[in-house]
Amino acid sequence: MTLRGGDICLPRTGVPVSLVSDPSGFGGTERGDLLCGTLVVREGAVIGLVANGQDTPPERLVLPRFAEAHVHLDKCHTVDRCAGIGGDLGSALEAQRRDKARWTQQDLATRAERGLRELEAAGCGAVRSHVDWSCADGEPERPLAWDVLGVLQDQAASRGVILQRSALTGVDEMADITQAERVARHAAEASGALGGFVLDQKHRAAGIRNLMACADRFGLPLDFHVDEGLDPALDGLELIADIALELGHKGPMLCGHACSLASRTEEDVARIADKLALAGIAVVSLPSTNLYLQGRTTGTPDRRGLTRLHELAQRGVDIVIATDNVRDAFCPIGKHDPVHSLSLAVLAGHLDPPFGRHLTTITTAARRAMGLPALTVDKARVTDLLAVPGASLSDLIAGAVSPVPFSDVVESHNA
Predict the structure, then answer these.
(1) CA 354, CA 14: separation in Å to the nearest integer?
(2) Model pTM score
(3) Which CATH number fits domain 8-64+376-414: 3.30.1490, 2.40.50, 2.30.40, 2.30.29?
(4) Is 65 helix (H, G, I), strand (E, B) or coil?
(5) Percentage of residues in the chain with pLDDT exceeding 90?
(6) Which residue from 204, 216, 306, 200 is spatially nearest to 253, judged by alpha carbons?
(7) Active-site residue set
C-alpha cells in the first residue's frame, strides 16, 4: 500500500478477520482471529492495514456498527405496569394484550424512542422492530404503533441509523390474500419487512404462501416468528423452507426463535438445516426471551429453549443473534444491546472462543438477513464503524469495555 498525503494512520489497530470481505487484500499481520497493524483512512474510508512487523497487541479494535435484527419497540419498557408476568408464551401474550389498552400515541413514542436511543448508544447502525398487526374486525387499517415508529424511522435516518419496521401478523390471517396484500402495501411504502407469527394455526401453509407471494410482488424481506415452543410436533420452520423451495423464493428471509428444533432428532435437524441453507433462510436466536419463557416447569427449568445454533451453522445456515423483548411481559429484564444478547448466547449456547467468528451474528450476517447492503470494515466509511479500546474481544462481549464511534477516534487523532 502506498500512502498519500492526507492519509490518517492509526497504529496498533486490530480488525476481526471475520468482518473483512477480502482478508488477503486488506493487509496487516494475523494475530489470532485479528488482523493487526496500522489502519489507514483515506478520504473518510478505511483502505487497509499496514503491517508493523511486531507481534504487539493492538490498543484498539475496529468493527462495523452493530445490526439489531429483532426487537419489539412497541412493547418495550412496560414491565412495571404488566400483571401476570412469570408464565409461558401464552401467559405473556395475555399480559401484553391487557397492557395494550394503555398504548396511546404518547406512550408508544416515549417508550419506543427510549428503546431506540438505547440501541444507538450500544452501537447499532441498523435496527428492525416488529410491530403487532391484526386484521381482525374492528382493528384499524394499520396499527397506531406503525405510524409512531414511522416518525422515529425518519428521525433515526437523520442520525445515520436505519430503523426497519416489520409487520408482525398472525399467519392464519394472511391466508386471506386480500389481507396479505393490504399489509404488504403498507410495508412496501415504509421500506419495511413483512412477517407472520407461525405456530400451529390451521391455515399456516396458506398464510406462508401468500406472504411469500406478496414479498415477491412488492420486493420485501420476510421475517417469521416460528415454532416458539419446545413441542417437537411444531413444523413451521420446515414448512417455510419447503414452501420457499417450491416457489423458488429467493428474497431475504429471517426465521426467529425456532425453539422446537431443540426437541427434534439429529436426523430431523440435519434435514431441516439443509433445506434452510438451500433456500437461503437465516435463523435468529433470541436468548434472553427464549431462556425466560421456554421450558417452564413447577421448578427449575432443565431446557435452555434455544435453537440448534451449532448444527444449523455447520450445515451452512446463517445464524443471527438478537435482543427480542426488553422489560415487558415476555422478558421482565433484558437490555437493548446486541453485544449483551451475544454474551447470553455465548453462555447458553456454548459459543466458545475465538470470539471473532461469532461477531458476524450481530453485524454482517444480521444485515444480510435484513436485506441490507453488506457492511465490512474494508472500504467502510468511518461513520459506519465502531472502535473498541484494548485488544480483547472477550472484554467487549463481557461488557467490560464499551464501543465508541470510530469517527470520534479519527477526529481526535487528526486534531
Answers:
(1) 14
(2) 0.96
(3) 2.30.40
(4) coil
(5) 89
(6) 216
(7) 228
